[in-house]
Design brief:
Order of helices and strands: EEEEEEEEEEEEEEEEEEEEHEEEE
Number of strands: 24
Number of domains: 2
Strand content: over 45%
Shape: flat
Helix content: under 10%
Length: about 325
């Protein structure tokens, strides 16, 4: 099977604040692109390789900026010889050593202006596309829009060099369609979600709510399920229902057990079904969980899980 993998790393970094809360300077780096180029980058799915690009951008509260890139199945006179399917994965997260710029809204649109997916603050999402076999080459344009809504005096909280957001775009092409299921063939999927944090008026500590969803992608139940993971920052301070928090040791490690309601829909995870639980937490809620392990009384621990995260949601349904 022919397969091409391309990676585009876009780093959106706050360099300095010219006027606190009103104007900030960011950098998105792009190599080998002429100044003023309309199309910033092309992903060409006819061979293996990697690439990256960078370009300087400025953005301030209430402003919108965007960059454009193109996906193609041809280069010069070479056209892909099969149906070509591709997946673009956008991961918006805090830059290493910094805190994320929570108000930023990152939206991906097609050439017609249709919104394909978006995230506020930090999070991960996919965009799928394809090129059917044809004699002539084909291409698709995508626009990444970054918007900073004007939140008044609260924008001053993001002034200085302690804040930065990184947008990673990973592009993968294949002759076979990508599954719309998040499992991608893995036995278990885990989704970690958080709400927008708020500040406690008395302590000054930031708080948020979290939600964890475990999905069984196999044909066998996971009886008396358990879940363990590490969260390097933040503190999960409890669980409301549908699970028991049984361990918070060593620091940063959490282990949950099924609620033991004597109900198979909560104590067991049936094939193709999910269980969810959540609770309160302390921190900003912008860090993904790590080193996940899902077990059961009838199965050994499963560590090769499919993880997805969504941060800064208005509510957790």
């Amino acid at each position: 099977m022919k397969k091409a993998v391309f990676v585009l790393a876009l780093v959106l970094v706050m360099l300095s604040s010219l006027v606190a809360g009103t104007l900030a300077m960011y950098t998105v780096s792009i190599d080998n692109v002429a100044e003023g180029s309309v199309v910033a980058k092309e992903f060409v799915f006819v061979g293996e390789g990697t690439d990256s690009f960078q370009q300087g951008l400025k953005i301030a509260p209430s402003e919108t900026t965007q960059w454009q890139f193109k996906v193609k199945n041809y280069e010069n006179n070479t056209v892909s010889e099969t149906d070509m399917y591709y997946k673009l994965t956008f991961n918006v997260q805090a830059l290493a050593g910094k805190k994320a710029i929570d108000p930023l809204q990152v939206t991906v649109k097609d050439a017609q202006g249709n919104v394909l997916n978006s995230v506020t603050g930090v999070g991960t999402f996919d965009v799928l596309g394809s090129f059917p076999l044809a004699v002539n080459g084909q291409e698709q344009d995508y626009f990444v829009q970054i918007y900073w809504p004007d939140n008044g005096s609260s924008d001053a909280n993001y002034a200085g060099g302690n804040y930065g957001t990184m947008i990673n775009v990973n592009a993968v092409a294949s002759q076979l369609p990508f599954s719309t299921s998040p499992s991608q063939g893995k036995q278990v999927s885990v989704r970690y979600e958080t709400t927008t944090p708020w500040q406690n008026g008395q302590s000054g500590i930031y708080q948020y709510n979290y939600k964890v969803t475990i999905t069984n992608n196999t044909s066998q139940p996971i009886n008396n399920w358990s879940l363990g993971f590490y969260l390097p920052t933040d503190t999960l301070s409890g669980v409301w229902s549908n699970a028991k928090l049984v361990s918070t040791s060593p620091p940063g490690y959490y282990k949950f057990l099924n609620p033991a309601y004597n109900n198979q829909t909560t104590d067991n995870i049936l094939p193709g079904q999910s269980v969810s639980f959540g609770g309160p937490a302390l921190g900003m809620g912008t860090t993904a969980i790590q080193s996940i392990s899902v077990g059961g009384s009838n199965t050994s621990d499963i560590t090769n899980v499919d993880l997805s995260c969504k941060f800064g949601e208005a509510s957790l349904n």
